[in-house]
Amino acid sequence: MKFRIILLLLCSFAISQNIQSQEPTDFNVDFETFTLENGLNVIFHIDKSDPVVAVALTAHVGSAREKEGRTGFAHLFEHLLFLESENLGKGGLDKLSARIGGSGANGSTSRDRTNYFQTVPKDALEKMIWAEADKLGYFINTVTEPVLAKEKQVVKNEKRQGVDNRPYGHTMYVIDKNLYPEDHPYNWQVIGSLEDLQNATLQDVKEFYNNWYVPNNVTLSIAGDFDKEQAKEWIHKYFDGIPRGPKIEREEKQLVALSETKKLYYEDNFARLPQLTIAWPAVYSYHEDTYALEVLAKYLSEGKNAPLYQNLVSEKEHTDRVRMYNYTSELAGQLMLQVTAYNEVDLDSVESAVFETFKNFEAEGIPERDLKRIKAQQETDFYNSLASVLGKGFQLAQYQIFANDPNYINKDVEKILAVTPEDVKRVYEKYIKGKHFVATSFVPQGQVALALENSEEAGVIEEKIVKNAEEEVNASADASYQKTPSSFDRSVEPPYSSAPELTVPEIWENILPSGLKVYGITNNEVPLVKFSLEMQGGLLLESPNKVGVSNLLANLMTKGTKNKTPEELEEAIQLLGADINVTAEDEKIVLSGSTLAKNYAKTIDLVQEILLEPRWDSTEFKLVKQQALSRIQQQKADPNSIANNEFRKLIYGKNHILGHNNLGTESSVNNITLEDLKDYYSANLSPKRSVFHVVGAIEKEDAVKGIRALSVAWPPKSVKMPEVAQPELPQESQIYFYDVPGAKQSVLRFGAPALAATDDDFYAAEVMNYRLGGGGFASQLTQELREGKGYTYGIRSGFNAGKNKGLFLISSGVRSNITFDAVKLIKEIIENYPHNFDGEDMEVTRGFMIKSNARKFETLNSKLDMLSEISTFGREYNYIKQREKMVNELTVLDIRELAEKYIDPEKMYFLIVGDAATQMEKLEELGLGKPVLLNEINE
């Protein structure tokens, strides 16, 4: 069947003062669906704006289909499906992805579905269809006991990294265990438990595959630049031979109700601030009440006008933000509220303020103006979700699977826009007012007094660190298995179709009289415009004893203007369906945003007001300082943040400005005054040191016209960028350790000073690094530590730099009890890399680096990145083609020389953040000196 989606976003609402009412917007998405005889659902969407195609295979199975004692199995299966299939061979889709220049084979698992996706150059479409069919129909025989054992370790490392080894990681486990009955499929987490993962058997894998990975339970979506009739032929060729599976009925909805309110607490080893989370039972996806619940959550919590913000942040100063959202799934849902309070704030006072706010809402409801503001945001959010061909494919598959109708996109938007103030009040009374809930208090160790009164201790199972607790596995050995019969030889990889010609987007530029440079790209794919104003400075222009000024300034700039209160400014931005943000980086401050194309001029007027008419609000200054202090406190307990901050100090030294975290320290932030921000602003922000980038549905004339008034009003002044000392290689390698007692993972940061992004060798070094650690699953580090040993969930290496010399960095998180083995293996890999890089590596590297260029300019964000690369580092407009020429000319010998020059394991810093009591002593055997305990140095 073929449909024409016509989205009528009726945002014809009155807007304040100088903002005109919106005209209805037509937005068209063509799609076509058909079903094979074996039940496979197929969705096509044609988009010829870029020479790429996104392919996604979505199975209607998630953790909700698991059995008791086998939690986490759907997610484990997602991992297994990437490893091998009968005709792709070992490495499967990952190796293919590297050769064809794909975005990287990826997947995700939710409660109700598992998807596998990738964007590739359009000439590789047949290869992708062949590969996806091989995964679906010709995979299960390749799973052996060693393969399963290794992947269990990988998934357990993922759990340690995302749950066990981070602040508040167990929150959703406690919430869902108490919100849903034991026999409800949402009672357990998608990631599962370590015990259940370990107990999974090969027979479990085969049973799961035969039940759920069948064509009649799968949707294949293809979106991008391709020929539909040719694609249909390929789909029939490769998928028709896969037999239909058993009939699968749709699950009945399983809404829940609580008979009592439950309050639980947990002393969190990694938390430094108390956090309150509240969950109310709600409704499933696409339920009639979903739309009003989403508006309710946004109204109560998002922005300075939000009632919860007004009460908890502005008035009572309990926290710097309140998060509230409607979490829906296929069978049920929950309304979530979360507050990370300031240091030593009693969570009873937070809970009291929350329900006090609700009481006020009962009397006042939601103003019509706020409802219109939220709908304007939803319009922009919708367009952003369709900014890539993968996004379009995902959206259509989502409706096919959960609404049983991809055309539901029309109804969905109509329902969003049909929400009334009465609907919002009604769902509040139905799902929150007087209703039972589950509340968790996650507090720092030793601070149980901060938890909600009458809370019971939550049952959280902590993993103990035991050396050699995990079995050694070898999944790299070839296994023998019987091949699945097929009507043709599937082992022959399809050829490329005609290669797409790389077409660099047309770039235009302008220099305004103030010295402000403007670069732009016109692209009419979606009715959006994105922009960024990059102002040189950032951390580089700060005083060492007042580090944190640029970060505070960036955060304060959007907190009102001379003629608008913070609330009025925020409302003005949101009514335009826009967003404007300011961030501080090492070498620049960036004001960025997006807006509906029709509102570009009005949005830039607000940018001008923000930039040139600051409010300097003392109340807001106090708040942004408190926010910075809270983030600094939280980072002190987060192993990844600790690793990043400590490694900067090692590379640059404590006294170097770039050796600092740009948040500053508690001491430096406390010493910063509002006058310090004014001084930095007056001295350092100048159009002569700034560049404006704009991309999207706007012509050059209109884009420049919009920014001209800002340029005229912005006084140009000369700003001298300091020449800072460039970091030097250490004389010899040394190992450093930062102790986080009880850490379930060791966080690794290994590297040394290397190159500036302007150095002639910089891109060549990036090419060299592809097969070491920059190529994901195509890299040696990933293949050895994850795929070969199961030591880690992920590991990568790369060169990070700006105009000043940056660093070469290897980063990972490994399970604690193999820290020594992982460090030893990494060291061996980097020692051998200059010697074992060969012709095959060169071929794979060259293929990826060149073919992946087809994806370089697909989204508006990628186009903005391209303009930033050109303006910041002085690249030519066609620098992508210049790099293609360089890659084609590089030889194996060149790569080896680059590796020897910029990756020297004898002159590196080796930093481990983990449990010193169990891991540090043995590291001395690595020959990198006696480990230096950084906690003692920092005291």
What do you see in this structure?
The chain has 32 helices and 27 strands. The chain is an alpha+beta fold and 939 residues long. Residues 1-25 have low confidence and may be disordered.
Low-confidence stretches: 1-25
Gyration radius (Cα, Å) is 28 Å
Strand-pairing-aware structural class: alpha+beta
Query: What percent strand?
Result: 15-25%
Report strand order across the widest sheet.
Answer: 1-2-3-9-4-8-7
Can you count the helices? 32
General shape: globular
The overall strand count is: 27
Gap between N and C termini: 69 Å
Averaging pLDDT over every residue, what do you get? 91
Measured as a percent range, the helix fraction is: 25-40%
In this structure, how is the largest beta sheet organized? 7 strands, mixed
Topology:
Layout: E1 2-9, E2 25-35, E3 41-46, E4 52-59, H1 73-80, E5 84-85, E6 89-90, H2 92-100, E7 106-109, E8 114-121, H3 125-137, H4 145-164, H5 171-179, H6 194-199, H7 202-212, E9 218-224, H8 228-239, E10 262-268, E11 275-281, H9 290-301, H10 307-315, E12 323-328, E13 333-340, H11 347-364, H12 368-385, H13 389-403, H14 408-417, H15 421-431, E14 438-444, E15 456-457, E16 508-511, E17 517-522, E18 528-536, H16 549-557, H17 566-575, E19 579-584, E20 588-596, H18 600-612, H19 618-635, H20 639-652, H21 666-671, H22 674-684, E21 690-696, H23 700-713, E22 734-739, E23 745-753, H24 762-774, H25 780-788, E24 792-800, E25 807-815, H26 819-836, H27 839-851, H28 860-873, H29 879-889, H30 892-902, E26 909-914, H31 916-919, E27 932-933, H32 934-938
Parallel strand pairs: 3-9, 10-14, 10-15, 17-21, 22-26, 22-27
Antiparallel strand pairs: 1-2, 2-3, 4-8, 4-9, 5-6, 7-8, 11-13, 11-14, 12-13, 16-17, 18-20, 18-21, 19-20, 23-25, 23-26, 24-25
Helix pairs in contact: 1-4, 2-27, 3-8, 9-15, 10-11, 16-19, 16-22, 18-23, 24-27, 24-30, 25-26
